[in-house]
Each structure stands twice: as structure tokens, then as C-alpha cells.
Amino acid sequence: MLKKSSFIYSGIIVIILFTALSGCGVTSRSNQKDMSQWERDYRRDYNNRLNYNERRINELKESRHRERVYVIETRNNDMKRKLDTFRGNSRDEWDSFKRGFNRDMRKVEKSIKSFAKNSNWNNKNKNNKKR
Hints:
With 131 residues, the protein is an all-alpha fold. The protein has helices spanning 2-60, 66-85, 91-130. It has three helices and no strands.
């Protein structure tokens, strides 16, 4: 009788463990699908921003300070390459990448704005001096 009841308890424990563990697999697979969509959205949004930066950089190439524009262009191209080559295996890796990438993106965008602002200011002053 003791053997029969311990066999039943062991069977119940195995069934409970199997059910619990198989449920964990379903949850992690659905998170991977969500992360995939998030990754696609993130890449699409930042590729759009990088392409916008590229258009603005091309407009700035007509200035006298081409060396500065090329530095900004190189940084923007490095950002594109970094985004295209990054392969995160976990959400933590993506979060870490995202923090650094967002920081670098803000610096590039700030450089473009600053350069454009200073270039416009210099052009306006030159026009005023000619009068």
C-alpha cells in the first residue's frame, strides 16, 4: 500500500512539474516574438532618423567648412553600420545597446543642428557686411 501511494504522489508531482515547465516555454517564445517586433520597429525608426541626418549633411556640404561636415558624416555612417551589425540575444543586451545608441544619436543630431545654425549665422553676417 505504501508503494502504491508513493507511486501516485510521484506521478502527480511529475505531471505538475511537466505542466509548469511546458508553460514556461510558451511564455518565452511569445516574448521573443514581441522582442522581434520591437527590434524591427527600433531599427526602422532609427534608420529613418539616420537617413534624415544624411539628407541634412548633404545640404551642409556646400559650406566652407567641409572638413567639419565630413566628420559629422563619418559619425552618422558609423551609427548606420553599428545599427545594421548589432545582434542582441536578449532584452538586456538591446536595452544596453539602445542607451548607448540613443546617446550617440543625440550627439550627431546636435552637431548637425549646431553646424547648420552657425553656418546660417555666418552667412547672414557676411550678407550684412557687404551692404
